[in-house]
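Long-time lurker, first post. I've been practising inverse folding by hand and with some scripts of my own, and I keep getting stuck on stretches where the structure tokens seem ambiguous. Below is the full token string for one chain I'm working on. Before anyone asks, I'm not after the true native sequence, just a reasonable design that respects the backbone. If someone could post their per-position residues I'd love to compare against what I wrote down in my notebook.
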């Protein structure tokens, strides 16, 4: 390589000078580029440009994410609106079908009632016609008897036969009229019963929905406490008494006296866990007869009698004007109150 460079210098000095000048210019340019890259201003400028580019990228990414979320939210709202609209349309369709069925049933019932009433009116007209025929025959019989055109024996025999036929026809009319009246009453009762059942069903559905809302508001939609126990207790009185007895005699799950699983007897007679009279595990008798830890009357360990007598000699644990309840009517009720 060095030999080629020396040969080039000997053969053509002008070309060599040009090559040297070009390399020198290139070296100067590279030095300037290196100085520019190594300068703190260029580094800060490049860093600011990169940060601006990253910021734009993050903004575009967040904008696309927000746009996607907006599109998804819009789609969800559209689906919910579609479901709500479909449910509303189905409800309207059910109400329309129900109204049509009720109208058809009402038309059928009205036609049946009108037919029965028409037959009942026919029976009434037939009874009126029979009465008119009887009156007409009586008048004719009287006329023929006055004129002497018929003998009394023949008139009496024909009158008895006529009365028999008329009585048969009247009994038939009465039976048919009673049958038609019963049929009319049955149709009216049936239509009224159907209306009452529909109203009761709607009211029952509303009451069930209200009860469900109350249970959700009280116990929550999931994890309702003691729901199974409440269902068993609601089934019968014996189940309620059994569960109440187990609750009263249940053992505490731990030593904390504030635990609700303590039975009433265990709550009334537990042992104090320490010497602090404010401890809730003091029984009612121990609280009433506890001695004050000091002479301060504001001490909560003062018994009720001592607190009343320290204020007044005639003090009483029962407030003035307090209405005392009557004594228990049975020993079982007394044990339940204790």
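-- Answer (accepted) --
I ran through it position by position. Result:
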């Amino acid at each position: 390589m060095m030999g080629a460079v020396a040969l080039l210098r000997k053969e053509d000095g002008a070309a060599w000078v040009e090559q040297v000048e070009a390399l020198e210019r290139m070296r100067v340019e590279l030095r300037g580029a290196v100085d520019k890259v190594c300068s703190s201003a260029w580094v800060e400028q490049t860093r600011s440009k990169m940060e601006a580019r990253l910021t734009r990228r993050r903004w575009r990414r967040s904008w696309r994410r927000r746009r996607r979320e907006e599109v998804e939210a819009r789609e969800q709202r559209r689906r919910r609106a579609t479901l709500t609209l479909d449910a509303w349309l189905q409800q309207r369709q059910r109400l329309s079908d129900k109204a049509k069925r009720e109208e058809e049933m009402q038309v059928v019932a009205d036609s049946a009632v009108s037919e029965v009433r028409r037959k009942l009116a026919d029976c009434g007209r037939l009874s009126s016609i029979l009465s008119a025929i009887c009156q007409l025959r009586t008048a004719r019989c009287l006329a023929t008897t006055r004129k002497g055109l018929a003998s009394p024996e023949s008139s009496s025999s024909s009158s008895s036969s006529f009365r028999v036929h008329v009585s048969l026809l009247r009994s038939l009319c009465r039976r048919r009229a009673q049958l038609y009246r019963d049929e009319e009453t049955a149709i009216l009762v049936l239509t009224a019963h159907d209306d009452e059942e529909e109203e009761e069903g709607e009211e029952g559905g509303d009451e069930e929905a209200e009860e469900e809302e109350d249970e959700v508001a009280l116990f929550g939609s999931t994890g309702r406490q003691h729901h199974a126990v409440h269902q068993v207790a609601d089934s019968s009185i014996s189940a309620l008494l059994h569960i109440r007895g187990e609750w009263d005699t249940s053992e505490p799950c731990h030593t904390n006296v504030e635990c609700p699983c303590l039975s009433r007897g265990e709550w009334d007679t537990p042992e104090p866990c320490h010497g602090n009279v404010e401890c809730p595990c003091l029984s009612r008798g121990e609280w009433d007869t506890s001695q004050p830890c000091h002479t301060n009357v504001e001490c909560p360990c003062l018994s009720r009698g001592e607190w009343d007598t320290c204020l007044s000699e005639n003090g009483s644990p029962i407030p003035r004007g307090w209405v005392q309840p009557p004594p228990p009517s049975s020993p079982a009720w007394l044990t339940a109150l204790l």
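A couple of notes from the structure itself: Residues 251-298 have pLDDT under 50 and may be disordered. The radius of gyration is 55 Å. Happy to go over any region you disagree with.
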